[in-house]
Design goal:
With 99 residues, the chain is an all-alpha fold. Helix content is 61%, strand content 0%. It has helices spanning 10-25, 29-42, 47-63, 67-79. Helix 2 (29-42) runs antiparallel to helix 3 (47-63). The protein is flat.
Length: 99
């Protein structure tokens, strides 16, 4: 999955941990928590149960609208500048009117 399966020499560990931490800090904390919770829960489930859980979790997340979610969607649909799953949306554009 690429979540925690990286090996490197001890001398490079601190630098790499700081890089990963900076990347995580640039992400939406609500989305990170949801992903973390999902990984913890589905690990012990059957495929069908995990799929059902993830669908319900996504439905619940869509119920709660927030500025970060709205901005990510705006940058994806309107600006074509954000691709979900490939990085964080541009937070410097948040709150700017649509072009």
């Amino acid at each position: 999955m690429g979540i925690g399966d990286e090996a490197l020499p001890l001398a490079q560990l601190q630098t790499r941990v700081e890089q990963v931490a900076r990347t995580l800090l640039s992400r939406n904390p609500v989305a990170l928590k949801a992903a973390k919770d999902a990984v913890r829960r589905v690990g012990e489930m059957t495929y069908e149960n995990a799929e059902d859980y993830l669908v319900r979790a996504q439905e619940a997340a869509n119920f709660f609208d927030n500025d970060a979610r709205r901005e990510g969607i705006r940058q994806f649909i309107d600006d074509k500048s954000y691709k979900p799953g490939l990085g964080a949306y541009d937070k410097s554009k948040q709150g700017h009117p649509r072009k």
